[in-house]
Amino acid sequence: MAETAMPEVMPDIERDEKSETRSEKEPGYIVICWNDPVNLMDYVTHVFQTVFGWQKPRAEFHMLQVHNQGKSVLVRESLEKAEHYVHQLQKYSLHATMERDE
Amino acid sequence: MKFLRLQNDRYIFHLGKPESELFTLILRLYPVIPPAHQPLSKSNEPVNEAHQRLLDEALAEQRRENKTLVESFLTDAQRFQVTDAAAHMTVTAGEMEFLLQVLNDVRVGSWLLLGSPTAEPLEIAPTNPNAPHLWAMELAAMFQMNLIRTLNKKPPGAEPKTS
Question: How far out from the chain centre does Cα B110 lie?
Fold first, then answer.
């Protein structure tokens, strides 16, 4: 991911704790955003905010995960919703895929 | 590109004349990313074939729509107030989202045309063959950052738009 300003972010722990359990969402698909050297960090943050309706700290947390770890699992959803999110992310030319959550 | 003011939910930008012409040139490059470029999944499940086709069709439709929007955006007489030295461009927040998609297509597509260099930060030596792609990639980024910074100036409490 092409660097812009490095934000100081904290993970949205409260939101994470409220995430649905695996059994509530079977069959599950995870939506992954992969790192690349071309998408700007501020742009990726903006897209996460826009597509998922996240507040900036949560969007920045996932953006930095992509940047530092090579990928970030953004959401776990049904097949249809995961497809929808991949479409939305690819519409913005982000490198996003969905995988079955084994 | 300089953000001047927000007026009746419309963002007004000042662009110098050369900058305005460069902005037009960059937008007219769209689309640069080749069709059916992105996989839906990295796994090889058979079910993915049909879903991949649907995704490719949806993205192709989006490209057609964006291409039409680019043309109508650039030919809208109300959009640009042009003087001898500058232009004032008026856009809504929704139009800025569309512009960000278009500009990033130009940026990522130009990067692909450069051979998808993997070095970070992207430090590519300009040569005669790669200069146009390098120019488009960097210029698209400059306009993108201006739009994002402006969108981030939204009043406190304003929720990000969901798609």
Answer: 12
Q: Choose among B45, B51, B149: nearest Cβ to A83.
A: B51
Could you count the other beta carbons within 10 Å of the beta carbon of residue B148? Answer: 19
Q: Write out chain B residues lying below 8 Å of A56, CB-based.
A: 160
First to last CA, chain B: 26
Q: Establish, for the pair of chains A and B, how many residue pairs have beta carbons separated by less than 8 Å.
A: 97
Q: Name every chain A residue with its beta carbon within 8 A of the beta carbon of B151.
A: 46
A28 contacts A101 by C-beta, under 8 angstroms: yes
Looking at 3.20.20.80, 3.40.50.300, 3.30.1390.10, 3.40.50.920, the CATH number of the domain A25-96 comes to 3.30.1390.10
Task: Report pLDDT digits (tens) over A17-48.
Answer: 445 555 454 569 999 999 999 999 999 999 99
Taking residues B1-5, report their average pLDDT: 94
Length of chain A: 102
